[in-house]
Amino acid sequence: MKGKNWTEVPLPERIFSSLHIMIAFLDPEFNFVRVNDAYARGSGHDADFLIGKNHFHLFPNEENERIFRQVLESGEPYTANAKPFEYRDRPELGITYWDWNLQPLTDVKGRVEGLILCLIDVTSRERALGDYIRLAAAVENAREGILILDRQGVVRYANARFVRNHGLTKNDLLGHDYKTLLVEKFGEQLAGILNESFRNGEPWSGQYRQMPDKGPPADLAVTAYPITGGEGIISGTMVVEHDITEELVLRKQIEQKNKMEALGTLAGGVAHDFNNILMPIIVNLELALMEISQESPTAEHLRLSLAAAKRGVDFVRGIISFSRPSSGEKEVIEISSVVREALDFLKSTIPGNIKILHRICSGAGAVLGNPSQIYQILVNLCTNAVDAMETEGGVLRVRLENTPRGPKAEGHVKLTVSDTGCGMSETVIERMFEPFFSTKDKSRRAGMGLSVVHGLVRAHGGFINVQSVNGEGTVFEVFFPRVEAAPKNQSEEAEMPGGRGERILLIDDDEAVLRSLGKVLVRLGYDVVKNKNAQDALKYFLAAPESFDLVITDQIMPDLLGSDLARKILSVRPAVPVILCIGHDETIDAPALKSQGLREILLKPVNIGMIAQTVRCVLDEEREL
Questions:
Q1: Is residue 175 within 8 Å of residue 208, measured between CB atoms?
Q2: CB 596 within 8 A of CB 576
Q3: What CATH architecture applies to the domain 142-243?
Q4: Do 6-127 and 142-243 share a fold?
Q5: CA-to-CA distance for 410 and 405, rounded, in angstroms?
Q6: CA-to-CA distance for 342 and 350, rounded, in angstroms?
Q7: pLDDT for 123-168, tens place per residue?
Q8: 331-483 classified as CATH 3.30.565.10
Q9: How far apart are the first and last CA of the chain?
Q10: Is 364 left (phi over 0), alpha (psi -120 to 50) or beta?
Q11: pLDDT digit string (tens) for 260-281?
Q12: 148: closest CA among 135, 139, 157?
């Protein structure tokens, strides 16, 4: 066509040259005879370069060569769709895909004179199709439910998760108006979500609770957003649902854990202040009882006051067990005796319209526990049960038995407390172990009973199961790890040892505690130097460190912590015994302090007997320094 006007070129030639389909004419040896412009461009070579060249020298492929020979020999055409091909000299193109047709060209006698090869590059189509297939598979198998609607609200697609979430089939959804299906089944809330997206043409996110006919409810996070075309015209809406039921449960658990930890910290601070209040009361009542006749009416008044103060100590211990459930000396005990003792106490306090039934297996076994704390657990559970039946009356059942349940082979001892009272709602069950939470009149209950039970049970390595139905009653099952060792015999109360004139440096920022503890130590026979200020006490000690036989210090003080004061004292004189008094054991690292030379840690409030025994024991202790 060179040198000729385009209009002078014969029509067949013009058509051949202008077609976008790649066309090549090859002789029987597969050499190029003619190619059109599209073929030259597609092959990456000029047409003049291709003429006379062998197709398979330029584009080697054994499989394709066999196909060419088959067509040449049989005279039958061959067609392939999306056939892959890789250029050896152009690796940057990767795998390409071709629709091609190989047509034999025959003479008048039917002999094959050559081949006409027609090619269409469908690489872009196939790659897009592959992307579409992968995307479709990802959407179909996504963990989120996906629904696609057209502008009229007709369902055009729903993936497998959406179908399962709503208990429907794809046939139930596809081609149907979403309002007649989803809204009728799941309420106006979902309709509002979708209509909001339709109306505004803006993405919308929210949550709703799905209430299926069968199975538990599910909480779903929903995002609805418009589907727009290239010109920004909205063609439909996509709805994506994500089941967040487990996520919300986990979030609640984390929030509850954080809340319990925060309340535990608060409870620890309250316990510290209570200890400083109770300690002077207890030691002064004990001092008063020592100074008067035990037969006098005044002695009886003092004993009642002392008993009340000791109940306050139990309350404080309960707060401490909640804030850090690790305090309380434990021993191997037969739990059945503790349960019987608690029931004897309860019988005299429970209203007449409530009947107590109990079954205590004598062979229930031993546990490693604190008798006072187990007593407190049972009394608090029974008190809670009595409150639930106070108006209508009912039956309180207490049962103690062995059970194989539990992670250890030796099983657990199970204490069951049940009532026929008003029961609890799910909301109350979720919060029942929170301190100060109560459904009772605030003037009657502090809301600490079940939170204390929770802390004490954990302190014993146990766990609690709760079952409750509103209007029917509640069952608490408390599991304590059972031990096989026999309980140890209770030792007789030791005599109260006295001092021998040893000099003691006593530090406490609370005036009442300082004076009360000082009086006790003086009465026991010690020479006591009292100081309210830790910094002043340190200076006093440093002035004559060898003049003191013992140092007793409080932990929480405004100018210097007792543990830091002890380190400073021990750095000057490592041999001096130091006793640290604490009101809340979470603030110190007891093993570390003892490894640095601290002799003893006393948990407030302490009575005279504990003071006497501890001080004498520390002073008499022989240590290799």
A1: no
A2: no
A3: 2-Layer Sandwich (3.30)
A4: yes
A5: 9
A6: 12
A7: 999 998 988 889 889 889 998 999 998 888 889 999 999 888 878 8
A8: yes
A9: 113
A10: alpha
A11: 677 667 766 777 777 778 888 8
A12: 157
Q: Is the peptide bond preceding residue 605 cis, with omega within 30 degrees of 0?
A: yes
Give the up-direction half-sphere exposure of residue 131: CA atoms within 13 A in the CB hemisphere: 6
* Angle (CA) 93 98 102, round 5°: 135
H helical segments located in 501-561: 511-523, 534-543
d(CA 82, CA 89): 21
Nearest by Cα to 185 from 162, 160, 161, 205: 162
Q: What tokens appear for 26 in the block?
A: 């090859």
Q: Where are the domains of the chain?
A: 6-127, 142-243, 250-316, 331-483, 503-620
Tokens representing 487 are: 């309980």
| Identity at 291, one-letter amino acid code | E
Q: Quick one: tokens of 482?
A: 């059972």
Phi then psi for residue 170, to 5 deg, are: -65, -35
- What is d(CA 507, CA 560) in angstroms, rounded to the nearest whole number? 11
pLDDT value, residue 94: 85
Cα(583)–Cα(603) distance, rounded to whole angstroms? 6
Contact 373/317 with Cβ under 8 angstroms? yes
Tokens encoding 137: 């598979």
**Homologous superfamily in CATH for domain 503-620:** Response regulator (3.40.50.2300)
pTM: 0.47
Give the C-alpha separation, 527 to 540, whole Å.
15
Q: Which two tokens stand for residue 209?
A: 């609770």
Spell out the alpha helix ranges (H) of 460-589.
511-523, 534-543, 562-572
Whole-number Å distance between alpha carbons of 500 and 523: 11
What is the spatial distance between Cα 464 and Cα 462, in angstroms, rounded to a whole number?
A: 7
Contact 118, 101 (CB under 8 A): yes
Quickly count: other Cβ atoms within 10 Å of residue 457's Cβ.
23
Beta bridge partners of 415: 400, 478
Residue 390: the pLDDT is 82
Q: Cα–Cα distances in Å, from 195 out to 183, 225, 228, 236?
A: 11, 11, 17, 12
Q: What is the DSSP string of 248-317?
A: HHHHHHHHHHHHHHHHHHHHHHHHHHHHHHHHHHHHHHHHHHHHS-TTSHHHHHHHHHHHHHHHHHHHHH
Q: Measured between alpha carbons, how far is 464 from 453 in angstroms, rounded to an integer? A: 9
Spell out the CATH class of 6-127. alpha beta
- Give the C-alpha separation, 339 to 409, whole Å: 24
Measured at the alpha carbon of residue 336, what is the angle toward residues 331 and 340, in degrees to the nearest 5? 120
Residue 196 burial (CB < 10 Å; 0-12/13-18/19+)? middle
